[in-house]
């Protein structure tokens, strides 16, 4: 009886783990290195120069470009690429909202009611962080370092190449 119960619990646990591996069912569970692409696009607000793009491809064709100038090749080894992909998974990047250009907050009205307000942040500096795994692509627009998880990923990518 004990052996049966243990086997049943292990099977159930493995089934639950497999289902939880991909909270977003669209994220592929297997793909080749060549099918991985990570991009970070920094857009300045109000037409101020200083934008840049970093693209990391599993095929080895990676580059950095500033203000739409000539692309500078980047060297990214397999270990670094896999570490970055693992960071996307561990930060639950695939579950984040696509944009954070709306700032929500609560205010207290004169009759002591709490009201929620939403302000669209227009023409503000932002970063667009994307990852493509095979045919699946997820992008998140980062504004004012939000969401924190995506902002931390973008900072890590920047530190790899911008000294």
Which key features would you list for this structure?
163 residues, alpha+beta, Mago nashi protein
Structural overview:
With 163 residues, this protein is α+β, with helices and mostly antiparallel strands. The protein has one domain (33-161): Mago nashi protein (2-Layer Sandwich), CATH 3.30.1560. It is built from 3 helices and 8 strands. The protein has a 6-stranded antiparallel β-sheet with strand order 4-3-2-1-7-8, with helices on one face. Strands 5-6 form a two-stranded antiparallel sheet. It is globular.
CATH class: Alpha Beta
- The percent range for strand residues is 25-35%
Domains (count): 1
| CATH architecture descriptor text | 2-Layer Sandwich
- Strands of the biggest beta sheet: in what spatial order? 4-3-2-1-7-8
Q: Rg from C-alpha positions? A: 21 Å
Largest pleated sheet: 6 strands, antiparallel
Principal-axis shape equals globular
Task: Determine the fraction of residues in helical runs and give it as a percent range.
Answer: 25-40%
Regarding quaternary structure, what we see is: single chain
* Secondary-structure content class: alpha+beta
DSSP summary, beta strand count: 8
Continuous helix count: 3
Spatial separation of the terminal alpha carbons: 62 Å
- Per the CATH scheme, the topology name is Mago nashi protein
Low-confidence stretches: 5-22
Q: Give the helices and strands as they follow along the chain.
A: HEEEEHEEEEH
- Going by CATH, the homologous superfamily would be Mago nashi
Mean pLDDT: 83
């Amino acid at each position: 009886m004990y052996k049966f119960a243990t086997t049943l619990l292990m099977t159930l646990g493995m089934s639950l783990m497999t289902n939880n591996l991909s909270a977003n069912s669209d994220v592929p569970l297997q793909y080749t290195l060549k099918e991985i692409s990570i991009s970070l696009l920094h857009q300045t607000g109000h037409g101020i120069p200083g934008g840049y793009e970093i693209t990391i491809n599993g095929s080895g064709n990676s580059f950095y470009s500033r203000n739409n100038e000539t692309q500078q090749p980047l060297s990214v080894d397999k270990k670094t690429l896999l570490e970055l992909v693992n960071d996307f998974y561990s930060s639950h990047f695939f579950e984040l909202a696509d944009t954070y250009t709306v700032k929500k907050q609560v205010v207290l009205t004169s009759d002591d009611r709490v009201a929620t307000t939403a302000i669209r942040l227009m023409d503000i500096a932002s970063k667009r962080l994307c990852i493509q795994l095979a045919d699946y692509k997820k992008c998140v627009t980062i504004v004012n370092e939000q969401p924190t998880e995506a902002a931390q990923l973008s900072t890590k990518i920047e530190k790899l190449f911008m000294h």
